Amino acid sequence: METRLALIGIIVEDKDSVEKMNALLHEYGSYIVGRMGIPYPRRQVSVISVIIDAPNDVISTLSGKIGMLPHVSTKTIYSKVPTIC
């Protein structure tokens, strides 16, 4: 199966969305390589980076589901090099 390495950048503007976002990340946990979250109190947001190694459709689905949460924005960057697992 061909997978891609991607970075999903997430900005959470409302803490009420964090629980649902964490549930989604847990659901896709087998694909997640690493995650880093940084709170930014001055702007009352959290900025999260998720590194994922998965098929294109899995990456798109996760990013889309997270982006549909209220007060959450996402952007996904894909590696140009596919990985064969």
Descriptive notes:
By secondary structure, the protein is of the alpha+beta class. It has a single domain (2-80), classed as ACT-like. Chain A, domain 2 (Alpha-Beta Plaits, 2-Layer Sandwich). It is 26% helix and 46% strand. The protein is built from two helices and five strands, in the order βαββαββ. It has helices spanning 18-27, 56-67, and strands at residues 2-12, 32-40, 45-54, 72-78, 83-84. Strands 1, 2, 3, 4 and 5 form a five-stranded antiparallel beta sheet that branches. Strand 2 and strand 3 form a beta hairpin. The longest helix is centred in the C-terminal third of the chain and has 12 residues, at 56-67. The protein is elongated, with a radius of gyration of 13 Å. The termini are close together.
Topology record:
Blueprint: E1 2-12, H1 18-27, E2 32-40, E3 45-54, H2 56-67, E4 72-78, E5 83-84
- Distinct helical segment count: 2
> What is the annotated CATH architecture?
2-Layer Sandwich
**Considering the protein shown, what is the CATH homologous superfamily?**
ACT-like. Chain A, domain 2
Straight-line distance between termini: 6 Å
Largest sheet: 5 strands, antiparallel
- The helix-and-strand class reads alpha+beta
Helix content: 25-40%
Mean pLDDT: 94
Radius of gyration: 13 Å
What is the global morphology?
elongated
Q: How big a fraction of the residues is strand?
A: over 45%
* CATH first level: Alpha Beta
